[in-house]
What we know:
The chain is built from four helices and ten strands. It is α+β, with helices and mostly antiparallel strands. The chain has one domain: BirA Bifunctional Protein, domain 2, CATH 3.30.930.10. The protein is globular, with a radius of gyration of 17 Å. The termini are close together.
Amino acid sequence: MTTVTTIKYLGLAPYEPTMAAMAAFTEQRTPDTPDEIWICQHPPVYTQGLAGKAEHVLLNPPGPDHIPVVQTNRGGQVTYHGPGQVVAYPLLDLRRRGYFVKEYVYRLEEAIIRTLMHFGVTGHRVAGAPGIYVRVNDPFAHAALTEPPDPRDPFKGLGKVAALGIKVTQHCTYHGMSLNVDMDLAPFGRINPCGYAGLATVDLASIGVQVSPEEVAAVLAGHLSSRLAS
Length: 230
């Protein structure tokens, strides 16, 4: 039996209240609570995962250019959220769906890859570095990456287009993933994205795909619903 998932579009949602609402939903749910996927964009914010180190925020001066840094309980290191980036938060009961965390992450990544494919872009996994990457100089090439692309520089020639950071408690998920569509990428230059110094970050616009965040959100929602099904 396929588990029904409700998709909720939250629009431009402040990060901290959204995080609190996710946590409350997860803490209060019962074995019969229907699963949901929340899709939104956030105003500019840096978020730190449980493994996050302060030194990975390189430059964040006070004043009009300051971006708040929020400590979270998700996995991973520091990342940036801002308008023009589609964020998805699956709130799922994995036990009811019948798979474990490792497969959940794989399915999340597969939904992102399929979404990129819809727009002609080939997404890639990099071993040991959750998220999805594209060849910056040829994002539409279908050839698989060699493993690894370069042992001395696993991100050589790649740009990160999507990030993952999840939390699982009592078999239930929250937090999730972000996909860069058409955003100001400059704030990524003020951090070591996901803890990797010098990691290039791209969005669909910067690799030549002109599409709205709303269109990407709709495609992503469909792929998340199907890829995360039981």
